[in-house]
Design goal:
Helices cover about 45% and strands about 10% of the residues. The protein is α/β, with parallel strands linked by helices. The chain has 5 domains: about 60 residues, no CATH class; about 200 residues, Rossmann fold (3-Layer(aba) Sandwich); about 70 residues, no CATH class; about 150 residues, no CATH class; about 130 residues, no CATH class. Helix 14 crosses helix 16 and helix 23 runs parallel beside helix 26. It has a 7-stranded mixed β-sheet. The chain has a 3-stranded antiparallel β-sheet with strand order 10-12-11. It has 30 helices and 15 strands. Its main location: membrane. GO terms for molecular function: ATP binding. One of its GO terms (cellular component) is plasma membrane. This is NLRC3 protein. Keywords: ATP-binding, Cell membrane, Cytoplasm, Immunity, Innate immunity, Leucine-rich repeat, Lipoprotein, Membrane, Nucleotide-binding, Palmitate, Repeat.
């Protein structure tokens, strides 16, 4: 009260207009606002001006704070294994997105960088919203990126729980977590309604004294938002009560036109994060994947009752370099661990010659889906396996989910609602089955229920299964859902169409879909899924021509592109390994000279990522011409230890190499 007596009339009027106040304070402010000869006119003018601008002040009352804390304290104790907590308490501090993060599929990002981000700085979770130095200020807009399945939502849950317990960020009075899944259910919102509808208790009156509150608004999962953010054409809004399109509301909040005093934390997959202009982002962090010890702990947690099985699964993962790199992603590690454990369980049951360990993506997911359809989960006893009728129902459900997954993928849609399910003929009562809960997760929202696939790759495999099955009988282009297109007859015509679409996709969102589609033509995958989701030996008539279609992508461009590398991976999925094996053998013997045709350059680029020969050192001595070096340039970026001895390079090549070393993505640490 003593401090209020020092206010000028205008300052008092500002306090009067801005916040609901306790009765005694309100009476004093009313008196103070009347000071001066023209106080009444000044006050009226100020209120009119203030109402046209945004000042959404969240006023703090003790009962309200207590209720808010209780909301987050109750679910804190479960769902966060110790390994996840340790990994997520230190984030990588990054300076914006790299080219590969902006342009390539999540899986390809991990494969190319070998799960090792080119970053040396880290920041503890408790300092995420604090200044980095004594002379800087706290970030207003923070963005945390991470590939699908890395743990972004888990990180948000960990932060909110730790904050609610008072362990971190005690300077933040309110943490308001929202998901873009929830925001998808609204067409229009105001800034005021955004806060109040999600957290109605924040507007309750209270008797305790009021104070200005530091507030953190969390927006989790930008990649799941139904509308792309358009900062160039968004309509400016400064009125917190005005209802506008939700995407415009988000852009105005991030720009600072609304909720200027609120800190904002956005989580997103890397490619979607590029929607936010870098000039608006005060701090960007990245979630790293598993280290070896954390991967072991994760698998031990998966197989708590069988440590021997956990060790065998880890041994198989480590034996396959490509798989080991992808298992740095927790979501992928869980799927791979489940599939390999299922394989080990059944290979020990069989007296005949043991089948090969699953090595490709398609084989891993084939085992996973076979396990899902049979109901033969590791934690279930054999007696509870599904009946034939239940398996048949499961196949129909997979088919329906496949169509939903495919057309969702084309629209970059990864979250679905009840109306989507009904539109694709999916029986909502079946979504509670154990099969469905392994493929599709459910989240009850205020206004509706959201469904999303347990991992992005589950959606992509289902999409490939649907396309593979539908392509054998479709007479129109399947990429046009309306069916209005030029006729396309035969599986191979549709396969070439899929290859072409994947090659043309700017954001590479069809790359893994194409890998899975190619993998379904593999003899091993056909054997695994025949009688379940495929017909035995049906792939035989298509395979050789499909291989030719993919090989046509390898020499289409002068420089080896990511498209060519993905085409090589598709050939590997299809078990066509001749080219890669020949180049790998020459690489091992250091006899690549004269071999580097465009196709072999693509094979070499693929091997730089997956071959054990390149694990410690990439030796390309005595084999590179100027044209071969130029075509491989974008792939050499990711070789940490690179030998280029005795290649008779001239100045033009040296200039090329110099330009590579200055690229943001470059991971070269040693160059000879």
């Amino acid at each position: 009260l003593r401090r209020l007596e020092l206010l000028t009339a205008q300052e008092a009027a500002q306090v009067q207009a801005a916040s609901p106040l306790p009765q005694q304070v309100r009476a004093l402010v009313d008196v103070l606002a009347g000071k001066g000869s023209h106080a009444s006119q000044s006050l009226q003018s100020f209120i009119q001006t203030c109402s046209s601008q945004l000042h959404l002040h969240i006023t703090v009352h003790e009962p309200m704070v207590q209720k808010h804390l209780e909301r987050f304290q109750s679910p804190c104790g479960n769902g966060l294994e110790s390994g996840a907590v340790q990994r997520l308490t230190n984030l990588l501090l990054v300076e914006g997105l790299t080219d590969i993060q902006q342009k390539e599929h999540d899986i390809l990002q991990v494969e190319t960088t070998k799960g090792l981000p080119n970053v040396s700085k880290s920041i503890p979770l408790e300092k995420l919203f604090l200044p980095l130095s004594k002379v800087s200020i706290p970030p207003r807009i923070s963005v945390t990126i991470g590939v699908a399945g890395i743990g972004k939502s888990t990180l948000v849950k960990l932060f909110v729980c730790s904050w609610a317990k008072g362990e971190i960020n005690r300077d933040i009075m309110f943490v308001l977590p929202l998901t873009f899944r929830e925001l998808n259910t609204y067409e229009k919102l105001s800034a005021e309604r955004l806060i109040c509808s999600a957290f109605p208790h924040t507007t309750e009156p209270g008797r305790a004294s009021a104070t200005a509150a530091r507030t953190l608004l969390i927006l989790d999962g930008l990649d799941e938002f139904k509308t792309p953010l358009d900062f160039s054409n968004a309509v400016v809004c400064t009125d917190p009560k005005k209802e506008i399109q939700v995407d415009n509301l988000i852009t105005n909040i991030i720009r600072g036109n609304l909720l200027q005093e609120v800190s904002v934390w956005v989580t997103s997959r890397p490619a979607a994060a590029r929607q936010i202009p870098s000039g608006l982002v005060d701090r960007m962090t990245e979630i790293r994947g598993f280290r070896d010890a954390e991967m072991k702990d994760f698998l031990d947690q998966m197989f708590l009752d069988n440590r021997d099985l956990s060790s065998q699964v880890l041994q198989h993962i480590r034996a396959n370099r490509s798989l080991h790199v992808l298992c740095t992603i927790p979501g992928f590690c869980w799927i791979s661990g489940s599939s390999i454990a299922y394989f080990l369980k059944h290979s020990s049951d069989q007296s005949q010659e043991a089948p090969a360990v699953p090595r490709t993506l398609s084989e891993i997911y084939s085992y996973y889906f076979k396990m899902a359809l049979s109901g033969d989960w590791l934690e279930k006893p054999r007696e509870t396996l599904r009946t034939e009728q239940a398996v048949s129902t499961g196949k129909k459900l997979v088919s329906s989910l496949g169509r939903l997954a495919f057309y969702g993928l084309l629209r970059r849609k990864h979250v679905f609602y009840e109306q989507d399910m009904k539109a694709y003929g999916i029986d909502l009562s079946l979504l509670h089955s154990s099969l469905c809960t392994r493929l599709l997760l459910k989240e009850d929202l205020q206004a509706s229920t959201a469904y999303y696939f347990s991992h992005l790759t589950i959606q992509e495999f289902l999409a490939a299964l649907y396309y593979y099955t539908a392509a054998k009988r479709a007479i129109f282009d399947l990429f046009t859902e309306s069916g209005m297109s030029w006729p396309k007859l035969g599986f191979l015509s549709h396969f070439r169409s899929a290859v072409q679409r994947a090659q043309q996709a700017e954001d590479r969102q069809l790359d893994i879909f194409l890998r899975f589609l190619s993998g379904l033509l593999s003899p091993r995958v056909n054997q695994l899924l025949s009688g379940w989701l495929l017909l035995r030996d049906e792939h035989g008539g298509f395979r050789s021509q499909a291989i030719s279609a993919l090989q046509g992508c390898l020499s289409a461009e002068p420089a080896v592109s990511w498209r060519a590398v993905n085409a090589m991976r598709c050939l590997q999925e299809m078990q066509h390994t001749d080219t890669a094996k020949a180049v790998e053998e020459a690489l091992r013997r250091e006899s690549l000279a004269g071999m580097l045709t465009p196709i072999n350059c693509s094979a070499l680029a693929y091997l730089l990522q997956v071959s054990d020969v390149c694990l410690e050192e990439t030796n390309l001595s005595n084999c590179l011409t100027y044209s071969a070096c130029k075509s491989l340039l974008s792939q050499l970026l990711f070789c940490r230890n690179l030998r280029l001895d005795n290649n008779q390079f001239k100045d033009d090549v040296m200039e090329l190499l110099g330009s590579v070393l200055s690229v943001k993505d470059c991971q070269i640490q040693r160059l000879r």
